[in-house]
Design brief:
The complex is a heterodimer of chains A (about 180) and B (about 150). Chain A is of the alpha+beta class and about 180 residues long. Chain A is built from four helices and twelve strands. In chain A, the strands form four sheets. In chain A, strands 6, 8, 9 and 10 form a four-stranded antiparallel beta sheet that branches. In chain A, strands 4-3-7 form a three-stranded mixed beta sheet, with no helix packed on it. A three-stranded antiparallel beta sheet of chain A has the order 5-12-11, with no helix packed on it. Chain B is mainly alpha-helical. Classes of the chains: A alpha+beta (about 180), B mainly alpha (about 150). At the A-B interface, strand 1, helix 2 and helix 4 of A face helix 1 and helix 4 of B.
Chain lengths: ~180, ~150
């Protein structure tokens, strides 16, 4: 089998000439990811990559959710029981969430199906819930702000979503008094 | 002068279309509430526009300049998405902070695949045809397209 061909008098391995086709195969494979409900999907499970094997979606729907205070580089902020940072969205009006569709994939709502427990330093009276737009589940609120995770936070203590401008508003961590930190 | 089969130009153009659509449809999500000109949303729109232009050029005139442009646009975009996925560079002058430590954003990984494919194919096409201009007096032997069998 001839393993070389000539391009303008230069011997060129045939395998090199086949690379463009291989490259395009990557595009085809990526398109397959769409067809299988991959990256363009808006299901909450898309957020599951954060925090290792524990999916964000299952954690967000924890029946015994609790809010605690953690000390980070931004000061004292609210997190869930596992230390995952919670955020407020400045576009939200009152306790109604305005994060829908792809926004919820990037900023999964912090939801609960039971009574939300207030950890030390957290005011039980400021905790509340709103039906919001998170697929019918009750979204936890604090001081009237619906609470969210950020899919870019990969471990407890991460605050990578702080001060991001996305989906028409800004995102901030929230302190125990119920106000945004920074901004 | 056509460098590389026209079919490859069309296929890479398809990759740029994917990249452009993802950036174009995602741009509004990155518009800051306070507005501005050099914003992440407008950078997304610029990338979408560049991808569209390169896609059209690859279909209409797949010459060396077009392939070089394709490599430059795709390599720049791919470098940026990988850099800001893993490194918190922060704001650089007028350039906003583009740090986003996740692949979970809808379309992000897909566009990165498309950009990587464009980089690979464009690079190979340019490498395979790198000697064309150096030997203009050299008698023509075969074209890249004719060597596909």
């Amino acid at each position: 089998m001839q393993r070389f061909t000539r391009v303008r008098g230069v011997a060129t391995p045939k395998i090199l000439l086949s690379l463009p086709a291989a490259g395009f195969a990557m595009v085809v494979a990526a398109c397959g990811a769409i067809a299988s409900g991959g990256y363009l999907g808006t299901s909450s499970s898309a957020a599951g990559g954060a925090y290792g094997s524990t999916t964000m979606s299952s954690a967000a729907a924890s029946p015994a959710a609790s809010v605690v205070v953690a000390t980070t580089s931004l000061g004292q902020i609210l997190t869930d029981a596992r230390g995952r940072t919670l955020y407020l969205f400045t576009k939200d009006s009152g306790n109604s969430s305005s994060c829908t569709g792809a926004c919820l994939t990037v900023w999964p709502a912090f939801t609960a199906t039971g009574v939300v427990q207030a950890g030390g330093g957290v005011s039980q009276g400021l905790l509340g819930a709103t039906a919001g737009s998170s697929g019918g589940q009750v979204q936890v609120t604090y001081n009237g702000h619906p609470l969210y995770y950020y899919v870019g936070d990969n471990k407890p203590g991460d605050t990578n979503g702080q001060n991001l401008d996305q989906y028409g508003g800004s995102w901030y961590v929230i302190d125990p008094a119920g106000t945004q930190v920074g901004g | 002068m056509i460098v590389g089969p026209r079919a490859l130009g069309i296929l890479v153009a398809a990759a740029f279309v994917i990249d452009g659509v993802v950036h174009g449809t995602s741009a509004s999500a990155y518009d800051p509430a306070h507005g501005g000109f050099i914003t992440e949303g407008n950078l997304f729109r610029a990338e979408a526009l560049a991808a569209a232009v390169v896609a059209i050029l690859l279909v209409l005139t797949p010459n060396r300049l077009t392939w070089t442009l394709a490599l430059a646009v795709s390599a720049t975009a791919l470098s940026a998405v990988i850099l800001y996925r893993y490194v918190n560079v922060g704001a650089i002058g007028p350039l906003p902070d583009l740090y986003e430590p996740t692949w979970q954003v809808p379309g992000k990984l897909l566009s990165a695949y498309a950009e990587a494919s464009a980089v690979l194919v464009s690079g190979v096409v340019l490498v395979v045809n790198r000697g064309r201009r150096r030997a203009p007096s050299e008698p023509r032997t075969t074209t890249f397209q004719e060597n596909q069998t």
